[in-house]
């Protein structure tokens, strides 16, 4: 599989996961929605890095991935990515929390003003 094909495969996967996350959100399946949203974000940033560098990062931290992407894009890109990360700090932290919680913790995500974790 060529480099371009790998980028498109990962990008397509990310977009499908996002579509499924939106569907789960509409249906009230918040646990799966938050899991899929995190995976979609992670894969989308990874495909951008793959497209620019030819390599897929081995981290799962969305904030670390964004930091890597900013570094690859240079000064203008770094500023834009840093601004995005700063403006969306709470949401990104929530996605990272969901990555861990959906696998290892007993946590239920519920609707109402956005999916909010309820720990046990």
What does this structure look like?
This protein is mainly alpha-helical and 120 residues long. The protein has a single domain (3-110), classed as Up-down Bundle (Four Helix Bundle (Hemerythrin (Met), subunit A)). 76% of the residues lie in helices and 7% in strands. The chain has helices at 3-27, 30-53, 62-87, 89-104, and strands spanning 107-110, 116-119. It has a two-stranded antiparallel sheet. Helix 2 crosses helix 3 and helix 2 packs across helix 4 (89-104). It is globular and about 40 Å long. The termini are far apart. Mean pLDDT is 87; it is low at 113-120.
Helix-strand blueprint:
Elements: H1 3-27, H2 30-53, H3 62-87, H4 89-104, E1 107-110, E2 116-119
Antiparallel strand pairs: 1-2
Could you give a short description of this structure?
The chain is mostly helical and 120 residues long. 76% of the residues lie in helices and 7% in strands.
What is the CATH topology assignment?
A: Four Helix Bundle (Hemerythrin (Met), subunit A)
Q: Categorize the overall geometry.
A: globular
Q: Which class do the helix and strand fractions yield?
A: mainly alpha
Structural domain tally: 1
Largest β-sheet summary: 2 strands, antiparallel
How many H/I helical runs?
4
Determine Rg (CA atoms, Å): 15 Å
Whole-number mean pLDDT? 87
Poorly predicted ranges? 113-120
CATH superfamily label: Nucleotidyltransferases  domain 2
> N- to C-terminal separation?
45 Å
CATH architecture: Up-down Bundle
% residues in beta strands: 5-15%
Number of strands: 2
* CATH top level class name: Mainly Alpha
Helix proportion range = over 70%
Order of neighbouring strands in the sheet with most strands: 1-2
Query: What is the chain-wise order of helices and strands?
Result: HHHHEE
Oligomer: single chain
